[in-house]
Amino acid sequence: MNNFYITTPIYYVNDKPHIGHAYTTIACDIFARFQKLQNKNVFFLTGTDEHGQKVEKAAVSAGEEPQIFVNKMSKNFKNLVPFLGCEVNDFICTTEKRHKIAAQYFWNTLEKNNQIYLSHYEGWYSVRDEAFYMENELIKKNDTYIAPSGAPVEWVKEESYFFKLSEWQDKLIDFYTSNPDSIKPKSRYNEVLSFIHGGLRDLSISRTTFKWGIPVPNNNKHVMYVWIDALCNYLTSIGYPEQQSENFKNFWPGIHIVGKDILRFHSVYWPAFLMAANLKPPTKVFAHGWWTNEGEKISKSLGNVIDPYEVISHYGLDQIRFFLFREVPFGNDGDFSRESIAKRVNADLSNNFGNLIQRICSFIKKNCNSIVENNFSLNSEDDRLLQFSIDKINNYRSYMERQEINKALKETFELLTETNVYVDQQAPWVLNKSNIARMNVVLSLTVELIKRSTLMLYPVIPGSCLKVFEILNLNFSSINFDNIENLPSTSLTINEPSPIFPRIVIDD
Question: pLDDT at position 28, please?
Fold first, then answer.
């Protein structure tokens, strides 16, 4: 299959973007870039969720009309995308006309398929989470109840449309049993299956207590529950309801990368909605963890919310992109520590990768008139290292396909470490005085391994890798994972090397 569709969740516009938003967006960008290097036709979507009671309340607090408020807040998220070095195909806003058309068509399809009925809802609701909770899910605190997320809940009683979620319990279990890789990591898969086995109740999917939302077709007293509206964005962007459009046929179903707090919406409600509308469920939902700041939970009340603009301006874009995905297994919780950033960047990027490029290219510049002869008359030790690189690339590709970025990076740095050891053992600076032909072989192989390692790092740190390709005088657009193992047949004239990863000094 030569098409690849990946999405972030669309982000609530009731506040400014933080490191969590940056983390999810960069993750999707990494996977999109990797798939492009595999000659895939890629569609990468992000955007903003602009409806719901929470947004309406935030607009009132700001003293603005909801549409003016969301337009302003959405810009913060849209501007963040290029700042993060991310390349998206579409940025969707749920207040757009195309989305209203798609969401109402989706609703009508569910209704036509006898999946929706009108009744009354009575139960616990969290405005902050935009979610309903059963009493046994709530935590009692000082004679009041709070949601598992810590959000306050309120008792709601109102007329509501319901989706027949209970009818999809067995079908969801069958689907997930047959597709065990459709929720990752495995712990999240088990969590979702356990929730479904616990019993699904019909889901309230409309509200009458506020107006800021997409009206329910043929009943303007109701607006759509924000999650049925929001989730439909993944269809809108690729052309729904025109299911015969080229984009829709090429890209649906796709992969959703989400925070673990919204896993249930994406892996229980969403696939049930889709199957009820005669559409395929997502290929995969990957739920990643949360970040703490210097060991403390991040919260506005503690004043330790991490501003992506601030940390990237301080440490560098690729340095932060690298740290976020090298330091912690993707899917786990992680701690954002300034000391850890410095140690990780200095050890891997400055000492291992950057130093190798600098010393080899400087040597070629000084001793070989900037020319790499590309002599591949390899001995057994060279052959072993070349095969080692092929094994590492294959492992890397397998890990990236499974969204295991940290393991893919580990393979890359094992290759770089072996390359550094090889350079130290072969000592081209000694060969320069005794065996020029052998020196050219060592330099040719080392530059080739730098090229391969750089391609492996490109999805994570694209800006820096393009600088490396420029130093090596290689045309990046002609290199991908299908031809990475081809050895060059002509000489190469490298450009003036310059330090790419200056060491980070840890402040006392």
Answer: 98
Side chain identity at residue 216, one-letter code: V
| CA 145 to each of CA 133, 140, 149: distance values in angstroms, whole numbers, following the listed order | 11, 5, 11
Residue type, 144: T
SS (H, E, C) 69-87: HHHHHHHHHHHHHHHCCCC
> Where are the alpha helices (H) located in 43-178, listed in sequence order?
53-61, 66-83, 97-112, 169-178
Q: List residues bridging with 258 in a β-sheet.
A: 287
Three-state secondary structure call for residue 301: coil
Distant-in-sequence, close-in-space partners of 210: CB < 8 Å, separation ≥ 6: 53, 56, 223
Tokens of 364: 């070629």
Q: Write the pLDDT tens digit of every residue in 114-171.
A: 999 999 988 888 888 877 788 888 988 877 889 888 888 888 888 999 999 999 999 9
Residue at token pair 């899910």: 137
Neighbours of 39 (CB within 10 A): 12
Pairing of strands 131-133, 90-93: unpaired
- pTM check: above 0.90: yes
- The CA distances from residue 27 to 1, 32, 86, 89, 243, in Å, are 22, 9, 9, 15, 28
Place of tokens 């002869």: 373
Token pair belonging to 100: 């209203």
Contact 344, 54 (CB under 8 A): no
Alpha-carbon torsion (299, 300, 304, 305), positive or negative: positive
Convert the pLDDT of each residue in 175-220 to its tens digit: 999 999 999 999 999 999 999 999 999 999 999 988 999 999 999 9
Q: Decide if 93 contacts 51 (C-beta within 8 A).
A: no
Tell me, letter by letter, the H, E, C secondary structure of 353-414: HHHHHHHHHHHHHHHCCCEECCCCCCCHHHHHHHHHHHHHHHHHHHHHHCCCHHHHHHHHHH
Task: Classify 219 as helix, strand or coil.
Answer: strand
CA 499, CA 503: separation in Å to the nearest integer?
A: 10
Nearest to 155, CA basis, from 185, 133, 177: 133
Report the C-alpha gap between 322 and 432 in whole angstroms.
36
Q: Which amino acid is located at 131 in the chain?
A: A
H or E element in which residue 121 lies: strand 116-126
Identify which of 277, 280, 90 has the alpha carbon closest to the alpha carbon of residue 182.
280
8 Å CB contact between 441 and 375: yes
| Furthest-apart CA atoms within the chain: distance in Å | 89
Q: Which letter does DSSP use for residue 507 in this model?
A: P
DSSP state of 202: -
Tell me the CB-side half-sphere exposure of residue 502, using CA atoms within 13 A.
Answer: 8
Q: Which value, to the nearest 10 degrees, does the dihedral of the CA atoms of residues 198, 203, 207, 208 take? A: -110
